[in-house]
Every structure is written in structure tokens, then in C-alpha cells.
Amino acid sequence: MNKDAAIQFLEKISGDKNYSRFGRCFKTKAKNYFYDTGTGKVCECEANEYKLLETLINKNDYSTVVRMLDNPEYLDAMKNIRELYESENMFQDRGISFFEFPNEKDIDDGTEKGVRQIILEVTEQCNLRCKYCIYNEAFERNRNFSAKNMEWNVAKRALDFAALHSQEKLTIGFYGGEPLLRFPLVKQCVDYARKIMSDKEIIYSFTTNLTLVTDEIANYLAALEDCSLLVSLDGPMEVHDKFRINTNGVGSFEAAMAGLKKLVKAFGNRAEKCISINTVVCPPYSIEKVNEISNFFDSLEWLPSKTVRRLSYVSPDSLNEKDLEGYKEIKEMTDEEFYKQPDEVIDPIGEWAFAKINQSKLTRENSGIFGDFIQNDFLRIHKRWLTKEPLDFMPMHGCCIPGMRRLYCTTEGNFKACERIGNSPSIGNVYDGISKHDIYEKYVKEYGEKVAPLCAECWAKNICSLCYITCFNENGVDMKRKEISCMSSRNTCERRLVHYHESLERDPDSLDFLNEVKMQ
Fold first, then answer.
1. Best-predicted range by mean pLDDT (44-58, 142-156, 474-488)
2. Fewest Cβ atoms closer than 10 Å to its Cβ: which of 60, 280, 370, 518?
3. With 0-12 CB in 10 A as exposed, 13-18 as middle and 19+ as buried, what is 242?
């Protein structure tokens, strides 16, 4: 291959000289790789091939590549790249001609008899005032705390709707605020659900700060046929109490620990199956802090060792400046400046989890201590589409049909797409039911029309898990927020490609257990 032929090849694969969508070059400690967007294939690269592809694709620098081709070694590398193009159909991503999102019939069928989970916001009240809570006044994308409670008539109508429109298996969630403030209403809902849905398999789900758990409540929850508890505990006392405080400013650690102990005792052998811990990691970030939190949970002899522990970052928009500490400087960086920081600064949870994985054999049984790191990030890469030829369409990656996978009912009886999405368009209410028109027009159609052009040019589109949560406000899609979320997601995808392939290098069979894990 001479230089003219190499340039003709480059112009053939992209007439507009936009190469970034074709994939991503990434390095482990031992090897160089290229991930191909169109087919999902990953190939190992020699040094010259990697440098050429990194310049062409990661940096999208066509003119520098042309100058590099004056070197015969890079011409040989380009010849190998062309062979991959011809034999493996790589470097041929076509963008997206259409988003494969649900049509109106899919929505009609899915919401008519397909509701999988209904979540009742039984109160907007909470006995804590965690400094990072998304319901604080500092967080503009959500409601604030209020005295509103869900009335029985609203809860009853929501359960009646779920009974008529759900599958044989249904999850009924209780959310707030702090749902245990309305424990009598919770019991009333459970009794009513058992009465009207005796033919269904029901899972009762709770999100709680633990501080109100009594022996009575713990024993009641443990006696439910199937129960799932997501409990909030941020680590040892000095870490937890810094942000998770009562309305009087006093830390909540002791009450939360007492509540968790009561639950573990009441659930007995079912504890590790029914209880999972949500830990919010706050500034200042470091791997040392994450390790301190992990060691704390490991030290609790009474806590089942396989308890799922989810670690997540605080939303910086929910914190006042005085609480940001060293993170304030990072928050004020431009996106470009931020992503030039070391991985342990950008993603200490991910770097901690991967270091732990390297220290022991990863199995399905112990993967729970890494929370969503394995079950979400690794699984999406492991089960990515692998095709002989590139596709020109894609599903709406992490998006569900609103009202089907989750149906969130506010204290006032309005239906929302999800409890995590914040201010967003309603999709109906307990009086009139789900509005399939609103689901299609305000979510599916608008999201597809506005977001598809971004996804078409994105190398990470087939391993991306972003959904409506990242980009909606009360008026619909917020493209500014979406673009920020996309940049963060691409950086996460690249780091996880590295982590995933380093795991395979260490032990090629180490991730086989993911074959049996279902995508959520």
C-alpha cells in the first residue's frame, strides 16, 4: 500500500473526514485495543496500528495521520487496518438511520397489561435533612420537602390501577420522603394489595433511612412473602454523620445502625437476599475514603457478607458550596479539564472496585459488594451486540417504556415515569389512568427526535446505559443536560472497557458468570 492508496482508503470510509464515531482506542497495562462501534468487535493492536488509530479516531485528526503516512511503518499499519475493514467489516459504522423506539401500539400493549412496578410516594416528609438530598432547596431539578402525605383514597386508586394493568408478578414500592413515617398507610396498602391481587406474585419494596425501624416494623417487613429493602448508610460514624443529619443537625448514624441490626435479625437467613445498602460517597473524593467505607462494612460481623452494597456519587448540584470542600475546585473545572484528571479523581469508586476485583477471583456470589459496577457496567459490555456487519439502527439504550417498568405515583396521585427522574412531564394520574399519548409525545417521540442525532455520531452508543433520567425537566428533554451526561458516560464507557479487558487478561474465564445474568 502506498500513501495515495492509504489516503483514498481514508476518504472512502469517511468522506466528511469525521472518524470519531467508528470506535475507540483504549489501553490496558499490557495491551492496546480498538473497539469497533458498528460491529461491537474488539481487536488487539500493534503499537503502530494503535498510534495511527488513536490519532485518526480518538483525536479525529486526519491531517496528522496523512503526515504520519510518510513513514513506511505507518503505511504497513494502515494496510492491516484496511484488511480489518474488508474482512471484518470494521470501521464502517453508518450512524443511525432510525432509533428503534416503541411505537404507539407497543406503548398501548405494554401499559395495558405490562406494568411491572408501581411506586407510591406515601409522603414528602422526612425526619432527616441529609445535606446532599435531592429534595433540598439547593437542588433545583426536584421538589422540596413538604408536609404533603398521600391519602388512602389516592393509594387505593393507584393499587386498583396496578391490579388491572400489571403482569402476574408485580413490585409495589413505598417511597418518600421517609416512607416509614406513614407505616400505618403502608400496612393498609399491603392488606389491600393482598386482597385484590391474591392471584399475583407481589414483591414489596422499601427505600428507607433506617432511623425509624423498630422491632415491630422489622418483624412486620420480614413476615412479608417477598420483600426488598434499599437502606441508606454511608459508612462509619464520622463519614455518615457529616452529611446524614436529623432536622436538628445531629448525626443519624446510631439510629441507622440500630435499625439495620433490627432488620438483619428479623430477616435472619433471608437478610442478604432482601436487604441491600445504598451508600452515597461525598466530597472530598479519594480511593482511600471508598476503601474506608468498604472496610467498615466488612468489619460488621453481624452483616451477611454477600449483602449487596451500592456506592454512588453525590450530585454536586444538591450540595451547598460550604459542603463541597475540595470538590469545589473540581466542580469549577471545564469538562475538558476535568477529564484530564487521574482516574482516581474522576472515578474513585470504579478504581477502588477494580482494584478489589484484581485482589480476588470475581464470582457471581461476591459481585454484590461492588454494587452496580459489575451488574451494570461490565454486563453491558459483556452482552453488547456483536454483528457481522454494522447496523444502522439502535434501541433506545437504557430507556424503558415509561409506565411499564416503573410507574411512580406522587402524593397527589400523578403518574410519573420514574422516582429518580425529578421534575418531568406527568404521564397520567390515578383518576384518569395512564396517558399513552403523553408517553409517546413527551417521552418516546421527543427523546428520539432530539437525541438520535447525538447518538448517531457517538462511538459509545451500543454500550451506553443513559436513559430519560439524565436529561428531562418539567418541559421535556433538556439538551444541555443531555450533552453533559453524554460526555460523562463516554468517559465511563472507556474506563470500563479497560477494566473489563484487564479482567479478561488476568483470567479469560472470570466473567463467564455474566452469561447467566439478565440485563435490567
1. 44-58
2. 518
3. middle
What length does the chain have?
Answer: 520
Which residues sit opposite 144 in a β-bridge?
A: none
CA atoms within 13 A on the CB side of 244: 27
Q: Where in the chain is the domain with CATH 3.20.20.70?
A: 113-520
Among 368, 395, 392, CA closest to 384: 395
Instruction: For residue 32, give the 3-state DSSP assignment.
Output: strand
DSSP codes, 398-442: T---TTTS-EEE-TTSBEES-TTS-S----EETTTEE-HHHIIII
| Cα–Cα dist 379/257, whole Å | 32
Nearest to residue 130, comparing CAs of 301, 319, 304, 374?
A: 319
Render 316-374 in DSSP notation, one character per residue.
GGGS-HHHHTTHHHHHTS-HHHHTTS-HHHH-HHHHHHHHHHHHS---TTTGGGGTHII
CA 7 – CA 27 distance, rounded (Å): 26
Q: Is the pLDDT of residue 20 over 70?
A: yes
Alpha carbons 385 and 163: distance in angstroms, whole number: 36
Number of Cβ within 10 Å of residue 220's Cβ equals 16
Rg (CA), the chain: 25
- Residues 410, 355: Cα–Cα separation, whole Å: 41
Distance between CA atoms of 109 and 165, rounded to whole angstroms? 10
Distinct helix (H) and strand (E) counts, the chain: 22, 17
Percentage of the chain with pLDDT > 70? 97
- The number of beta carbons lying within 10 Å of the beta carbon of residue 470 is 17
**Which three three-digit cell numbers place residue 190?**
399491603
Say which residues have a Cβ less than 8 Å from residue 280's Cβ, sequence separation at least 6. 132, 232, 234, 243, 312, 313, 314
Q: 75-89, 160-174, 184-198, 456-470: which range is least confident on average?
A: 456-470
For the stretch 297-334, pLDDT in tens is: 999 999 998 899 999 988 777 777 777 776 777 777 77
Residue 391 one-letter amino acid: L
Q: Could you tell me which CATH number the domain at 113-520 has?
A: 3.20.20.70
Chain-centre distance for alpha carbon 64: 37
